[in-house]
Model the fold of this input.
Amino acid sequence: MAGSIRRIQSEYRYNVVKSIFRKNLATQFGTSMAFIMGPVVDGIVTGNYLGVNAVAANSLLRPAFLLFTITGSVLAGGSRSLYTEHLGRGETDKANSAFSFALILSAAVALVFAACCLLIPSLIMRILGANTVNSYLEPLGAAYLRGYAFGLPFVCCATIMSGYMSLDNDFARPVFAVGAMTGINVILDFVVVLCTDLGMYGLALATSASYVGYFLVLATHFFRKDRNLRFHVDWKSRPFSFSGKMFYRGSISAVNKVAASAAGILINHILTAQFFGPVIAVYGMQNSVLYLFGFLYLGTSDSVWVMSGIFYSEEDRYSLNDLQIASMGLGIPLSVICGAVLFLFPRFFAGLYLGFDNAATLAMGAEGVRVVAFALPLRVFLYCLINYLQGVRKIETANIMMLLMILVAPVGLMKPCIAIFGQQGVWFSIVIVDLILSILALAFILLQKGKTLKDKRLFVGDRIASGDREMEFVIDTMMEVSAVAGIAMLFCRENGYSDLAGNRIALFTEEMTRNIIQHGFDEKKQNLIYIRLLARDDGIILRIRDDCRPFNPVERYKLETENNSDPTANMGIRLVMGLASDVQYISTFKTNTLIVRVDEKTLKQEG
Done:
């Protein structure tokens, strides 16, 4: 019976993981596009209305944009990790303090960077490479920085907020916010170039206004009554102690941004020392096209990061495997399709940024676009691998790989590529770097410990138990509740646990599944309860996941014990909370997850 259940569950579990991944992917696509749409739209308008030199100036500015948004990116990932940890423990005040304190820190740092953009824009441009033979690019970039400063605090705070939307079961709002941001930017950009002579400064003001719109749309989430997310700083919990943990857990974003910024500055100096505006503009255009489709690898990999962290915490190697398959099964085909579009219409995408007037520049740009077409699938693989490693707590390894991909390899291979291919080596270098690193990444996976390729690529070793001490199955009717409780008891006995442990797990399984069916099922759709039992040396873990209406038994238990003196009220919840070693509830991705732990040592002492 167990084998049959396991085979049925394998397909169902993958479908559940794939469904959650798709929902989260749409949100993460929106979050990723928030970073790229402003510069992308500006790049298109700049190339067609302000000329190649303006495109070159925009290219030099890219490292600065990465540096300015680094704090928001780091705190978005790090605070989100702390938020889910405290929320799972039922510590809602601490969870919201992590979110709120991240917003405060991000806004403070963004204001400092904004002041730099207003006070020393020319110095920033010289540091970025606008000197000597390319000094004519300095005033163009400085003008853009002055206008960009006003929107910087808003986009940094919005970056943090957007990452929480799917965790708080709000998938659509980030998409609407990105739509509003893009619409505002496009409209105002054309107003600037067609109705004013503000030039680069005006385009930057339009981008700032779009960032304000993006922030305001996301802020409407806080008018929802059913939200868990709130702006609340619990000063008694010493929120400053969160900052170290947030920066550490979000360190991969810091490595990404700092490395990309440093690489951009170094490559700027390499290019400005050997080439003039057109070649620099083509390289900037190539990166703009790469960023235009960056939602593929950034959004996919960020979804992998969030979900792998949750599954790793739940010690669920099967779902980790399903997540890898789902991410590659969706990300790679999408990147190939987009790459095919780029390969077939390279002059169109090159002309968006460079204009269609200069035939020589357009030909170089088309060649660069076709290089991006081959790089997209490689980027999906590399970014997903790095963010997966982050999710399963291989933080140092992930950071080393990010440094290699963003800084060491691009800078180290730029001059050799130019020496071999001439000026074509500037844009050939992107796909050469990604190809070499993909081969090294595959070799790294094969060198991991494990009997099979699956064991190697999961990177969990013995940290998570294998399937011989695990059972998972699905129910959807009240008639199956008692049978499930009996299976849970037999599972405990077969794995050598005491009858006391088996009885408690059976009781917990029956009470909680019955409660979900009675109060959570929706007659208008199919409802399923996914149950997983994991046998460990130190006890048993019961996980119950459903896609029904939100219901937090941990919070309900607190309310009952504080406000209801009747010991018979909600008896099932009281029994579970009173007898289990630990109970956690997490509501994410429009699913409810209850994790109940029974400590065998405690049971032996009681027995």
User: Anything to note?
Assistant: The mean pLDDT is 81. The two ends are 31 Å apart (CA to CA).
